[in-house]
Design brief:
Rossmann fold; globular; 10 helices; 10 strands; about 20% strand; single chain; ten-stranded mixed β-sheet
């Protein structure tokens, strides 16, 4: 499926894969209305992959967005260029076709919904099982390195990344949520998730935007969801740091303000957005936590390519000083899981 875009704009070089996912969890069956559902994902395999085991990077879209949408409109296919260079497989996930909240509609063709920890379930969530099924499918076609499976995503897709860390710590070595639903290891914002032993060993690089109109940076409601009770992104950071037993102040990196005018001034009162990275001391198991604060940015994925102007009023502008795909991969390649943790699922 080709998506509309400017003349000459890149399209994903991946192929769409579909399969039937069988559902057994009663709460999920009630929500979906069936014990099976058609699932899809966009798969990119570089032609130069070696015959040996290779990493897998999952990239998840926001609410109502498709796999093609996160590939083309948000990440601008940057992960595919990185995969060519560093030899890994890219999987762009796709949410369930039925919205979890009544009244929601897809934002584009084949757009789906990833409710994450919001959805009531027992054991592992439906989308965690979806990721496991994809990995099992991939393993029949190419050797994959199960010690180097990673997840990133925007908004609800970032929420699924957090959910994978909580419910499938045997599966992911590191995650990189962007302007994410702020699911946490305990308290109210654990929601309906069920943490498994080992979740605190998953390394995390999360990015939050101070002027996010959808998921508020500070505690309370956001401009688009004034009735929401968000915990605040810094509180989410601190909750994960505590759970991971990471202590001490971070080292601070200020990224150069390379592009001026990349903040939506009518709301932020700033001409430009900037990014600061906070790198915290290693945890007791060698796990890392990096926190990116995108000051003056909206509900976007940082990229050198600015968002279409028709979306600025609703979602704000994207920071153009960094490409977060580069940041995510640089973080991911620092981490792999011990062989013992990938040999069996944590129960």
């Amino acid at each position: 499926m080709r998506l509309r875009g400017p003349p000459g704009a890149p399209q994903s070089r991946g192929c769409v894969v579909t399969f039937t996912q069988e559902l057994s969890d009663p709460a999920t069956v009630r929500w979906v209305g069936s014990d099976r559902v058609q699932r899809r994902y966009l798969l990119y395999l570089p032609r130069n992959l070696p015959p040996t085991q290779v990493p897998v990077v999952f990239v998840f879209p926001g609410k109502g967005v498709s796999a093609e949408g996160i590939a083309f409109y948000e990440t601008h296919c940057r992960f595919e260029a990185l995969a060519d260079r560093h030899q890994f497989i890219v999987v762009y996930g796709n949410g369930l076709p039925k919205p979890y909240w009544p009244g929601d509609t897809p934002a584009m063709p084949a757009g789906g919904f990833l409710p994450g920890c919001f959805a009531e379930h027992s054991g592992e969530g439906v989308d965690v099982k979806y990721v496991r099924a994809i990995l099992d499918q991939l393993a029949t076609e190419h050797p994959i390195d199960r010690s180097r499976v990673y997840a990133t995503g925007e908004s609800a897709g970032g929420g699924l990344s957090f959910q994978l860390a909580l419910e499938a710590p045997d599966l992911v070595a590191a995650i990189a949520p962007v302007v994410s639903l702020p699911f946490q290891p305990s308290g109210t914002w654990l929601q309906h998730c069920h943490p498994r032993v080992g979740y605190a060993q998953v390394s995390i690089a999360m990015l939050a935007a101070t002027d996010d109109p959808s998921i508020s940076y500070t505690p309370g409601g956001s401009r688009l969801y004034p009735e929401a009770r968000y915990p605040g992104m810094e509180a989410t950071r601190d909750a994960w740091l505590a759970a991971m037993n990471i202590q001490g102040p971070p080292s601070i990196d200020e990224f150069p303000d390379l592009v001026r005018g990349d903040s939506y001034q009518p709301y932020t009162h700033l001409e430009s957005s900037t990014v600061q990275r906070q790198r915290y001391p290693l945890g007791p198991e060698g796990q890392e936590f990096w926190y990116y604060e995108a000051k003056g940015m909206g509900h976007r994925w940082p990229s050198p390519t600015q968002t279409w102007s028709g979306l600025w009023e609703r979602f704000g502008k994207t920071n153009q000083d960094i490409d977060f795909a580069d940041q995510a991969w640089s973080f991911f390649e620092r981490h792999s899981k011990p062989a013992s943790s990938t040999s069996a699922r944590a129960h």
